[in-house]
């Protein structure tokens, strides 16, 4: 199976970003829970421990095999339920400044996930990665099995597309 990439370059106040959108036939509060509640998050990407009231949590990826299950501290920079969540971390794979924004119109919620670009060279890899994880989120939210989604359908198949976005970010300066 080949999937069609959907990410796009976006200029944001926080800096240049690669953004992705997914639409859900669900209220924003339900989608918010799918991206913030540890047990629901674990269905498609990973889980967190700690107390968000402290301004940070420990996040552990659980969809990339046991060798990649190292917790990382994620600082909560902005949290406005159920519309905006911004988190930040630096780990072995780079700096991650992520913004999830939810808008609901007549029971249909659009999630826009933006990754602020710290290192333009990472786009060719992180773009397909976010496509994969967001499709796993859609699967989990609709009752499908996220485990049936195969990363090999995303990478390297989408790499050329994201190299184009990488160049667009470079050209935008």
Automatic annotation (TrEMBL):
Residues 25-140 form the Activator of Hsp90 ATPase homologue 1/2-like C-terminal domain. It comes from the Bacteria. InterPro entries: ASHA1/2-like_C, START-like_dom_sf. CDD domains: SRPBCC_CalC_Aha1-like_6. Belongs to the AHA1 family. This is Activator of Hsp90 ATPase homologue 1/2-like C-terminal domain-containing protein.
